[in-house]
Amino acid sequence: MSSVTPAADGDPAARPLRKDAERNRARILAAAREVFAAQGLDAGFDEVARVAGVGVGTVYRRFPERRDLVEALFQEEVDAVVARAEEAAADPDPWRGLVGFLHWGAEAQAADRGLAQVLAAAGRGHERVASGRDRLAPAVDALVRHAQRAGVLRPDVSGLDIGIAVAMVGRVGGPDRARLRERYVTLVLDGLCLRRDAPTPLPQVAVGEDDLACVVEPVRRPR
């Protein structure tokens, strides 16, 4: 008898998989992670199949809807973002917590366009991803309140402002332009800070017109 492994994609009642089916599922998930990170969630299943080395029909059999694949890929990633926001909100130094979350969040979204889209848009994935996304807003709100009570964050800022700022900076440059994103996180933080004796020195990095264009159409990684 063939050994079986429990299925874990969009249908919780799915039958256990044979070894070969489980191998195909793992290859599809690995390929989708790569493709969605580089191209976003609207990338074609044919591209996922090509990278996985399987037929496109195999992708559709395992994940009949795009939301099934999103759920399987991003549940843990969304949970990790929530955990990071909660950790930042619990930091005894509220400004350090906020600064760390902005830097980390911008880099996480720059590295994975799919994750950025999941965090920004409802309707991506099923209940488990939606549940994680619903827990993120209160966690970021708690981070904001913590910093405001300490008198380090301007009082007219909301958690949504922080989310939008992270999403905007995450679109700057390609995955390898962390130094450029650091420049804009620094500018954002200076705008958020309630009191500062002088502007924070900006990272010295060359900025070109391509960097402006990528905010509209983010850089795609080479295949």
Automatic annotation (TrEMBL):
Keyword Acyltransferase: no
InterPro entries for the chain: Homeodomain-like_sf, HTH-type_TetR-like_transc_reg, HTH_TetR, Tet_transcr_reg_TetR-rel_C_sf, TetR_SbtR-like_C
GO MF annotation list: DNA-binding transcription factor activity; transcription cis-regulatory region binding
Keyword DNA-binding: yes
Pfam families: TetR_C_43, TetR_N
Binding region for DNA: 44-63
Keywords linked to the UniProt accession: DNA-binding, Transcription, Transcription regulation
Residue ranges occupied by any HTH tetR-type domain in the UniProt entry: 22-81
Protein name: Transcriptional regulator, TetR family
Organism whose genome encodes this protein: Klenkia taihuensis
